[in-house]
Write a structure and sequence with these properties.
By secondary structure, this protein is an alpha+beta fold. The protein has 5 helices and 17 strands. About 20% of the residues lie in helices and about 30% in strands. It has a 7-stranded antiparallel beta sheet with strand order 11-17-16-15-14-13-12, with helices on one face. Bound molecules: FE2/S2 (inorganic) cluster and fe (ii) ion.
Length: about 350
């Protein structure tokens, strides 16, 4: 069966600090990839497969900017060309490993695994908070054994919070108000909702430093920026001061049809110099992500047991998630159509 993720899309391959002078092996969209930095600092991404006998190049070593296979020692330039075969004088024609376009925009290293010529036509989504000194962030990389769309859906419908994370809900709020308009563009889906004024949940008081009984309005916005990125914005408005904004930015990169790399970043525009706030948010969101992962992995296992695909029953709260699924499906079908209509090569 064809995977349900598009290839012509920028995905997060790694965070900036994960890629260095050690070889990083990572399966992305089902493709084994090896990542490293040249001595100039530029990131190289290559298929993790030697052209000789398919040994993973990530098992080899770097020699300057060149990669040396750990089996028979073929040497590759950062552009993927094999430049040396130790056992003979000549390098066989066509001895070349595929390389992938990358774009580093800290804290993410983006990769293009689709049609090579199409990479330049699109840019990775902008993530301006990360290089704005008004914002401070903390993050981690996780692996979840669930299809990437299950993750998108989970974060596009936060009604699960009442069941899964009740301690995070402000006191007195019993239900999430319906979504305001859901906006759909070619690749994105965005929704927003306003919450009625309520006192602060414990975590909100701890993070903002406001007294617990402060009545605050809140706004919650979720965006499926692309199949690769989800951004949730949570704004606490205490009235007479600038609003407290917190973003949960998540790169979702399919590892395989049933597993996903999650690049989780939490950024905030308040208490930016307070390490204790960063620690508190990091552990709280880590704990939530672990609980989310446990549920999604259970759903994925259950789906895997089913012989025939079955139809889900949707409710109003699924509005954004259903649209996001449709956007992703449209991109996948468009790619499949292009391949199907391509004239046969003779
Ligand atoms: S498998 Fe890489 S050199 Fe033989
Ligand atoms: Fe959750």
């Amino acid at each position: 069966m064809r995977p349900n993720y598009p290839f012509n899309c920028w995905y997060v391959a790694a965070t900036t600090d994960e890629v260095g002078r050690d070889l990083l092996a990572r399966r992305l969209l089902g493709i084994p990839v090896v990542l490293y930095r040249r001595s100039s600092g530029d990131v190289v991404a290559m298929e993790d497969r030697c052209v000789h006998r398919a040994y993973p190049l990530s098992e080899g070593r770097l020699d300057g900017d060149r990669l040396v296979c750990g089996y028979h020692g073929f040497v590759y330039d950062p552009d993927g060309r094999c430049v040396d075969v130790p056992s003979q004088e000549r390098v066989p024609q066509g001895a070349c490993v595929r390389t992938y376009a990358v774009h580093e925009q800290p804290p993410f290293v983006w990769i293009w695994l689709g049609e090579p010529g199409a990479a330049a036509l699109r840019q990775p989504p902008r993530t301006p908070w990360f290089d704005d000194p008004q914002w401070a962030g903390t993050g981690e990389t996780l692996n979840v054994e669930a299809n990437y769309l299950l993750l998108h859906e989970h974060y596009l419908d936060l009604t699960n919070v009442f069941v899964m994370h009740p301690e995070a809900v402000p006191p007195g709020i019993e239900a999430l108000p319906p979504l305001d308009e859901v906006e759909v563009s070619e690749m994105s889906v965005a929704y927003a909702r306003a919450l009625p004024a309520a006192r602060l949940a414990d975590w909100e008081a701890e993070a903002t430093g406001l007294p617990r009984d402060t009545e605050c309005a809140r706004r919650e916005e979720g965006t499926f920026v692309s199949p690769a990125l989800h951004v949730q914005r949570y704004t606490i408005d205490a009235g007479d001061r600038p609003a407290f904004e917190l973003l949960r930015v998540q790169g979702f990169t399919p590892e395989s049809p049933t597993t996903t790399h999650v690049f989780l970043q939490i950024v905030r525009n308040y208490a930016t110099d307070r390490a204790v706030v960063a620690d508190h948010l990091r552990s709280m969101f880590h704990e939530m992500a672990a609980r989310d992962a446990a549920v999604l992995e259970t759903v994925q296992r259950r789906l895997g047991d089913e012989v025939e695909p079955r139809r889900d029953i949707n409710v109003k709260a699924d509005r954004a998630a259903v649209r996001a699924r449709r956007v992703a499906q449209g991109m996948v079908e468009e790619e499949a159509g292009r391949i199907a209509t391509r004239p046969a090569l003779i």
